[in-house]
TrEMBL record:
It comes from Sphagnum jensenii. Residues 6-188 form the Dienelactone hydrolase domain. It holds the Pfam family DLH. Coiled coil: none annotated. This is Dienelactone hydrolase domain-containing protein.
Length: 196
């Protein structure tokens, strides 16, 4: 199954967001080296070595470059969606008001303290194994930002962009999360319609 920015279902989701009226960018923050689950009894073998080579802190510099480019093109109302590793990256870059809305989808590598200084409105969409419960007490105590945490009870990590398109239940679960993300953006990043 494909992962990283070339994953077909991620690209399909990007097209869905674009169809809702947003300008979408899908950068390769992993430089062509997404984590690949290993065959055998330990599918996460190699994870620590991969993470050491791809620390989210390095991705912060890449995000800043993308933001600068978008702003140079006149785009000022920005959102950010992060999947898995990107869920940590969102928290690293969400400590100022660069983004108006951020969405974590099946976040990984996050700690409770990562949520403490978040400035933009944040939605967390998680599977039961994604430790979303660590975000709820901290985000629940944030009176100055809008927050939304939803755990999808019958899904596995990665369900929003790595699912079997022939499985109607998997498709419905992914589409529900996609709708939640689009609703979050509509609430915090309304699309302006201009007459031609």
């Amino acid at each position: 199954m494909h992962s990283g920015y070339k994953a077909p279902l991620l690209r399909k989701l990007a097209d869905k967001v674009a169809a809702a009226g947003y300008f979408v960018v899908v950068p390769d923050f992993l430089r062509g080296e997404p984590f690949v689950l290993q065959a055998g009894p330990n599918p996460l073998a190699g994870g620590p070595a991969w993470l050491a080579k791809h620390p989210p802190s390095e991705g912060v510099l890449d995000v800043k470059k993308v933001v600068e480019e978008l702003q140079s093109e006149g785009k000022s109302s920005l959102g950010f969606a992060g999947f898995c590793w990107g869920g940590k990256l969102i928290l690293e870059t969400g400590k100022d008001h660069t983004f108006k809305a951020i969405v974590q989808l099946h976040p990984s590598f996050v700690e409770p303290s990562d949520y403490e200084e978040i400035k933009p409105a944040i939605a967390v969409l998680a599977s039961p194994t994604d430790k979303a419960e660590i975000s709820e007490p901290i985000l629940g105590a944030c009176n100055n930002i809008d927050t939304f945490v939803k755990v999808f009870p019958n899904v596995m990590h990665g369900w929003t962009c790595r699912y079997d398109e022939n499985d109607p239940v998997a498709v419905a679960d992914a589409e529900e999360a996609h709708k939640d993300m689009l609703d979050w953006y509509a609430k915090h990043l309304p699309v302006s319609v201009t007459a031609a």
